[in-house]
Amino acid sequence: TGGVQGDIEKAVMNEEKIGFKDFIIEDMPELTSLGMYRPLYQNINELEWEFDENRNPVFNFWLYKGTYATSFLREIMKCEDMRAY
């Protein structure tokens, strides 16, 4: 990562005395990932919503690869008590 984000990442990893190689599991290579970065912010594309016959909300939209619909839906359904998650 470059820029300010990269500087923060490097500082945290140095402080914790870890490197990217620490995420490699030699005995179980199938569990090892090179990792990836996702955008912090992503637009919701072609959002449409309506209520079904039981008054349940139904959402239709699409997201780019690497963005999670569950994060968007969690924001819509957000409640005051974090234990509800």
Task: Please provide a written account of the structure.
Helix content is 25%, strand content 15%. The protein contains two helices and two strands; from the N terminus they run αββα. The model has no long low-confidence stretch (mean pLDDT 85). It has helices spanning 3-15, 69-76; strands spanning 45-51, 57-62. A two-stranded antiparallel sheet has the order 1-2. It folds into two domains: 1-37, no CATH class; 38-85, no CATH class. It has 85 residues and is α+β, with helices and mostly antiparallel strands. A hairpin with a 5-residue loop joins β1 and β2 (57-62).
Please describe the topology of this protein.
Layout: H1 3-15, E1 45-51, E2 57-62, H2 69-76
- Strands in their spatial order, largest beta sheet: 1-2
* Oligomer class: single chain
Dominant shape:
elongated
Q: Which consecutive residue ranges, at least 5 long each, have pLDDT under 50?
A: none
The proportion of residues forming helix, as a percent range, comes to: 10-25%
What is the number of domains? 2
Estimated structural class = alpha+beta
SSE pattern, N- to C-terminal: HEEH
Number of strand elements: 2
Could you tell me the mean pLDDT?
Answer: 85
Percent strand: 15-25%
Largest sheet: 2 strands, antiparallel
Q: Using the CA coordinates, give the radius of gyration.
A: 19 Å
